[in-house]
Design brief:
Order of helices and strands of chain B: EHEHEHEEEHEH
Distance between the termini of chain A: 72 Å
Number of domains of chain A: 2
CATH class of chain B: Alpha Beta
Oligomer: heterodimer
CATH class of the largest domain in chain A: Alpha Beta
Number of strands of chain B: 7
CATH topology of the largest domain in chain A: Rossmann fold
Number of domains of chain B: 1
Strand order of the largest sheet of chain B: 2-1-3-6-7
Radius of gyration of chain B: 16 Å
Structural class of chain B: alpha/beta
Distance between the termini of chain B: 13 Å
Order of helices and strands of chain A: EHEHEHEHEHHHHH
Shape of chain B: globular
Radius of gyration of chain A: 20 Å
Amino acid sequence: MNKSDVMLLCVSPRHKGTSAMLLERIRVVTGGKLFFLPQKGNLDELVVSMQEAGTIIISGPCYINTYPARMLELLETASLTGKFSGQKLYGIINGGMPYIHTHQHGLICLQLFAEQNHLLWQGGFVLGVGAMLDGKPLEKHMNRRTVVPAFNKFIQNISEGIQSPDSLYIKAQSPPGKLTTRIFAKFLTFLVEKNLKKYGQDPEAPNYYLRKQDDGKQNGSR
Amino acid sequence: MIVIISDDSRGNWGQTLEEAILHIGVQVIRFSADTLQIKPCTACNCCSGKTFGRCIIQDDMQLLFPEIVVCHALVLVSPVIFGNVSHHIKKVMDRMAALGDPRYRVRDGEMVKGMSRQGMTYFMVGIGDDLNEAEHSAFLSLHQENRKIMSVKGQTFILDSRMDKVSLNNIVQEIIHE
């Protein structure tokens, strides 16, 4: 692998979050240039950088079961532009839920993009509970004992320019058992409600847009 | 009421669906996501904290929120692109986090979330000619995961341009009767 033609692309709107942290961890080994997906404006310049790279590593968060909209816009723009010729493509997606299946669609989408646009799909890494890290090192992950070696192996695969199998991240992250799930759900809900109360918000209140409509109706009927 | 949000940049299936629903006398409102100015979600987390349930980004999405929050059925119509929805539709989906309940619940042994107002059904209509098995299955699995995490009922349909009127009417019936 030529270290100078490695493109590490963070597609998260947050530049210091988990997506960027994972790319920095890779860059220590592979070298290359870190890019951030601009959240507005033209994407042509970024597509040119993708065309010029030999290896592209895309890392992003999971929004509603796949990559965010702006990332899809990049793929659509890149596909219209074309001009790819065997660039190696790796993907990383991280999300809040501790399940692989919740986030895996992102990698499937990326693989389909690669196959339809003459890039070489090299595999990816799904990281559950990635959102909780909030940019902190992978060593703070709740499954660090299995996740850290698996991710290091993923980096090694990139470094050697070889395909990374899905089994690598699947084996490293077993879904929590029933009791742990219940405890986890209660704990996270406690944190959510605590945060809402900090801002004086009522977790049980009807949604803002619903309240606004009800207020409008009441004012109109007076 | 039924809300249709369609990406009409590659066809007019949203309008066709709207006309078919109107034809049988059901109230429907349609928005073309590709002509609206909708910015991407910035993950500011305000909607699950400081401005609970309200998105702080002031753009055309503010027109959609009041309609989606009261609708009985939400129908997203999108071209199938790499087994996914288009970025126009995905912007709407990402921003809909403001209508979600940020608290966690357990269903079928797994953690899920829900919508702030229960009872909405959620349909996805994908448009694509000659999709291969992988694209087909990716699109179906995306919507299945969406329904699961949002704790809503609904269905996914994939159409191509050779779709006849009978098949379209069958979809309309499914949407109305779900």
